[in-house]
Write a structure and sequence with these properties.
Layout: H1 15-18, H2 32-36, H3 40-56, H4 71-90, H5 100-123, H6 126-140, H7 145-166
Helix pairs in contact: 3-4, 5-6, 6-7
């Protein structure tokens, strides 16, 4: 089961293959985007993480024993920023190209995730969650329909039990 939304049909050659001298006089020159485009994603994530950290500082942070409202956003921001920095510095220079199948899979994922908040007020938690898991497993990972249905029922049941019973979150089952 793959969660990658865009399939790689080809990758950009390494800098050594196209640098002056090694690629030969007829080698194509790479522009800035070809050389540094792989850093834009981690840079955007780093900027978002910094925004989260800065906004979290305006909230009460508290301590590990008694966390305030700004505690977990700051922790999430710092962890996200650290991973983004690592990817920015040591990330591979492989570029994945858009394909029709990859874009359609992302759109199916987004549409199915919107199902839960749109339908929750009318039919509760279990039915839309089961349908979303079913759609994701059949449309995106090509599982058999009965495996997807059973998985959806189990996952929505476990999710409901976890949130409604153990964490005392008020959820409508149906």
């Amino acid at each position: 089961m793959s969660s990658v939304a865009f399939e790689s049909s080809s990758t950009v050659p390494s800098p050594a293959a196209t640098s002056a001298g090694e690629g030969g006089p007829g080698a194509p020159r790479r522009n800035w985007m070809d050389r540094h485009g792989h850093r834009l994603g981690p840079l955007l994530i780093l900027v978002c993480a910094v925004v989260v950290i800065v906004n979290s500082l305006s909230l009460r942070i508290g301590s590990l024993a008694e966390p305030g409202p700004g505690f977990w956003p700051i922790v999430a921001g710092v962890v996200t920023a650290a991973f983004a920095l690592v990817e920015l510095i040591v990330g591979k220079e492989e570029v994945e190209h858009f394909t029709h199948r990859g874009v359609s899979r992302v759109l199916i994922l987004m549409a199915s995730l919107l199902l839960i908040p749109i339908t929750y007020e009318y039919i509760g938690f279990i039915i839309p969650t089961t349908v979303v898991v079913f759609i994701m497993m059949t449309a995106l990972s090509k599982q058999r329909w009965w495996v997807s249905l059973i998985s959806g029922l189990v996952m929505s049941g476990v999710g409901y039990y976890l949130f409604a019973e153990l964490l005392q979150v008020r959820l409508n089952a149906f």
